Amino acid sequence: MIKHILVPVAGLPTDAALLEEAFALARLFAAHIEVLHIRRDPRDDLPLYGESISAEILQEIVDEAERNAQKTAAAARRMFDDMVARASAIVTERPVEGLTKGNGVSVSWREATGPTAWTLPARARFADLTILARSAGEPMDLEVSQSVLFESGRPLLLTGGAMERLDTVAIAWNGSLSSVRAVAGAMGFISRASTAFILIADEGPMDALAGVLRGGARPQPQLLADHLVWHGVQATIHKVGRQGQPIGAVLVEAALALNAGLLVMGGYGHSRMREIILGGATRHVLTQPTGCAVLLAH
């Protein structure tokens, strides 16, 4: 159940569209929005300047960086306040009685300091869903998006400019633990959709081998369809041919062809010393524009 949505803002003009989509989702689920602005500590960058720079100059660099950080935080807060006013949202740190789906939104503001790729996933562990923005035609910030996906343990929603089509959901299914967790994390979306598709992509020899090596089971999509019936969802199994194309591109194209506003898929990768090796489908949706929202879980 989605009741607590985390939305990071950077103090940029693109924050407005992200907040609007977050508020729209919060109304659907009668959920609370936690807006988080993360300031980078300028002292973290001091080793980059080396020992040849005097302490006075280093302090000037830190002071200037802190002034810029304060300006950015102020811009982010103004955007937040403007959205709260336009949405007539309730600013609160605790649940509010009387809020129902489609009627009212509660929201809170939080600031933190530190590297975004570390600070954001640490906070995302205490939310039901984290939303990141992707501008049309632009890739995600890979370091930030993969850190949330692999380090938070919670679902990640990448916006894609198609949030108005959430009544149709496509589920990329291969029977892996990641895809199971993605379905569980997306059940709030799936159960309210009027149309749901289970996408099964043909696997090439190397994909099949990779699935075996990471303990993958047979997909058995009919069992997933049978399970979704208990949630009031009649899902259609849709087989997708690859024809030599990358698996990620095939899944996105299939979702768009079915007019899905949301693609649900498991995120595969391995994290060690913060160097993350991504699976092909995961890398595609994190680095390429998709044309629809994507919910990932690992």
Automatic annotation (TrEMBL):
<feature type="domain" description="UspA">
    <location>
        <begin position="1"/>
        <end position="75"/>
    </location>
</feature>
<protein>
    <submittedName>
        <fullName>Universal stress protein</fullName>
    </submittedName>
</protein>
<dbReference type="Pfam" id="PF00582">
    <property type="entry name" value="Usp"/>
</dbReference>
<dbReference type="InterPro" id="IPR006016">
    <property type="entry name" value="UspA"/>
</dbReference>
<comment type="similarity">
    <text>Belongs to the universal stress protein A family.</text>
</comment>
